[in-house]
Amino acid sequence: MAEGQASGIRCEVGGQPHPLAFLDCRELNYGQHSVLPLHPFRLSVPEAALAGLLDEPFNSFVQDCREDDLQYEESDLPELMQAGYPDITAMLAGHRPLLAEMMYDFMIGDLMWAIGRASGYCRPRARCLGDVAAADGRAYFTVNKVEKIHFVGGQVILEGQGYYGAYVIWLTHGGGRK
Hints:
Layout: E1 10-13, E2 16-17, E3 23-25, E4 39-46, H1 47-72, H2 78-82, H3 88-94, H4 96-118, E5 139-152, E6 155-166
Helix pairs in contact: 1-4
């Protein structure tokens, strides 16, 4: 998928369209209780776009699994080993339940960040530890937890709960009051 394009990807929060550039995923305490009110969301991604969004992180994860399985002579994901460690395109073609499980357990953040990049969003880069100028202060919808992933009519559908809010991290370090 070309940078700046999010063709066919749709997000609804509480039944209303939500801009993809303002969609993110909770990193710390993903899936845990939120003090902010939770709202249902539905994210629809064309299967044809999924491989382009997740190709690199998915294939890297599969390679890590393969290497770990060889090193430790056992597998944490025996279904992946039995499937022959397929790439994401092969997973879409013949291993959708396993792909959904792997996305649910390991790749929700990767997918959200890839959708953000594809829609044109670029996270600020910190110049140093505690760089408040690089804090991400956009108001957006944060996925707290994906509860269901399924495939329908050429789309991958993710449904769950999230919250609205401005995500700003104020990091400070060193020096006391003068």
